[in-house]
Specification:
This protein has helices at about 20-30, 95-105, 120-130, 155-175, 190-200, 215-225, 265-275, 295-315, 350-355; strands at about 5-10, 35-40, 55, 85, 90-95, 110-115, 135-140, 180-185, 205, 230-235, 250, 260, 280-285, 320-325, 330-335. By secondary structure, it is an alpha/beta fold. The chain folds into two domains: about 5-150 and about 295-335, 3-Layer(aba) Sandwich (Rossmann fold); about 160-290, Phosphofructokinase domain (Rossmann fold, 3-Layer(aba) Sandwich), CATH 3.40.50.460. Bound molecules: 6-O-phosphono-beta-D-fructofuranose.
Length: about 375
């Protein structure tokens, strides 16, 4: 197909720094080709609400490159294949994906750009299988989407976490304490690993390397014995003891979104160290600070390249694909090769090995 096209873009799931850079790049590059652009608000929910889809002009995306969040807002509640509906007997889920396809047809869309992590890209793929011309853009601070060297948002989250560790470093030193910092990442340890190594963490606990509590105790005890009067312990929220479960703050059943919320492992590690070593510990749970705020240079640049790349995929008719970064070049991978999989830290990969070589403990 040639000539002007109509495309829409949505930001699904949780937000990540750089979303606005991507939306801006999609809108500007498409408009520069003479195409018409729509923004779907609140993730997939926008397909089911009145006025949930609006035209995006160059004016709408002016001045947003440096801002956090998404001008289209985000939601992880609107999965069209499992859309929540309240009935007399409680909440049920119904498949409303057909309505998304009808709405896209009514709008005359030639392409839908889904910016999302594993959940939203999975929905995108199912919509593609039902005939919708979809392309994906990998987004998440967790960096766990396979098929791309990196997702946008990850670099900013690492920068934020590293700066927090730097700040904890000076207060830890002046009070001679063990500082435990819990970072996000769900089942992936990328943020803990990168920010932990960059921030000079002494112990880094990640989900990919189940830890032996005794090894963590030994590591901190050895530091104390050497005269190191403070320590930094960086813990991924999904880190688990070798003979235990991950620490869940809110179960899927109790959560209004239906998604389990991790949290609390930092506190458990601190209590372990205090009890065993009689050292003074403090815990910082960094939380959503990692998701908010202005994106780094790298995420603005990557987001811009991903946005332009997605519009190129539509132009080439390469639907059912996701833009990706391979060796600093923008390329694409089929969504079918991405969905349902996770890219995790290799327990014996170069980065972990380098950290161990300088004395970082992983609790193994
Ligand atoms: O997937 C991104 C992420 O920030 C995870 O690191 C974290 O576990 C989760 O989302 C938090 O989700 P919510 O915003 O729903 O609390």
């Amino acid at each position: 197909m040639t000539g002007p096209r109509r495309v829409a873009v949505l930001t699904g799931g949780g937000d990540a720094p750089g979303l606005n850079a991507v939306v801006r790049a999609v809108a500007k590059s498409a408009i520069n080709k003479g195409w018409e652009v729509f923004g779907v608000e609140d993730g997939f929910e926008g397909f089911f609400t009145r006025n949930g889809i609006r035209t995006l002009s160059k004016d709408d995306v002016r001045g947003i490159l440096q801002t956090g969040g998404s001008i289209l807002r985000c939601s992880n509640r609107g999965d069209p294949f499992r859309f929540p509906k309240q009935t007399d007997s409680g909440w049920v889920r119904e498949d409303r994906s057909g309505e998304v396809i009808e709405k896209c047809q009514t709008l005359g869309l030639d392409g839908l750009v889904v910016i999302g992590g594993d959940g939203s890209l999975g929905i995108a793929y199912r919509l593609f299988e039902k005939g919708l011309p979809v392309v994906g853009i990998p987004k998440t601070i967790d960096n766990d989407v396979p098929g791309t060297d990196v997702t946008f948002g990850f670099n900013t989250a690492c920068q934020t976490a590293m700066e927090a560790i730097d700040r904890l470093h000076t207060t830890a030193a002046s009070h001679q304490r063990v500082m435990v910092i819990e970072v996000m990442g769900r089942d992936a340890g990328w943020i803990a690993l990168k920010a932990g190594v960059s921030g000079g963490g002494d112990v880094i606990l990640i989900p990919e390397i189940p830890f032996e509590p005794e090894e963590v105790v030994k590591k901190i005890a050895a530091r104390e014995a050497r005269g190191a009067r403070f320590s930094l312990v960086v813990v991924a929220e999904g880190a688990t003891p070798r003979s235990g479960e991950k620490t869940v703050a809110v179960t899927a059943e109790d959560s209004p979104t239906g998604f389990e919320r991790l949290g609390g492992i930092g506190e458990r590690v601190a209590r372990l160290l205090e009890t065993r070593l009689k050292v003074e510990c403090r815990v910082t749970v960094l939380g959503h600070v990692q998701r908010g705020g202005s994106p780094t240079t790298r995420d603005r640049m990557l987001g811009t390249r991903f946005g332009v790349g997605a519009v190129d995929l539509i132009e080439q008719g390469r639907f059912g694909h996701m833009v990706a970064l391979h060796n600093e070049s923008i390329t694409s991978v089929a969504l079918k090769d991405v969905v349902g999989k996770s890219k995790l830290v290799k327990p014996d990969g170069q980065e972990v090995r380098a950290a161990e070589a300088i004395g970082v403990g992983f609790g193994r």
